[in-house]
Model the fold of this input.
Amino acid sequence: MSRQTKALLQVGGVHGMASSLQNLAREGMGDTELDKKMKAASKAAAEKIVPYAKAAVPVRTGALRRSIKADATRRYGRIIAGTPTRVPYALAVHAGRDIPGSRKRTKATKFISKSIPKAWPQIVDEYVKAMNAIAKEFQKKHGVDRIYRARR
Done:
């Protein structure tokens, strides 16, 4: 986060905002518009990492590179690599794995983990601005910064 952009979500953060939206949904007053905006902001941030991850992945057939994509929830964005049927070896490439019958381990290629710091400068300011706008809209609609779950 840059020094010029002050976070509006200082108390609860993105997690607190997502929890408040979930609590509204439990009470039957779900705010699907803000849910969608939070998910879109998280996915936009995750999509900025994908090109870096695709450039860093080791390539033999290109199937692993093609399988890298962004996804998101209200709380966070994520990078998905591999599929259980077509590219089941994605985790073994990223994290390494033990070779059965020996005391050796394949070398890990942390292509996703190493891509995040490279994309971070492009992500952080835009993500904070998007979440601040959502927080302001939440405050305007509901009149409070955060909604807590009622204890039963």
Q: What stands out?
A: The first strand starts at residue 69 and ends at 72. Helices lie at 13-26, 32-47, 50-56, 63-67, 90-95, 115-142. Residues 13-142 form one domain.
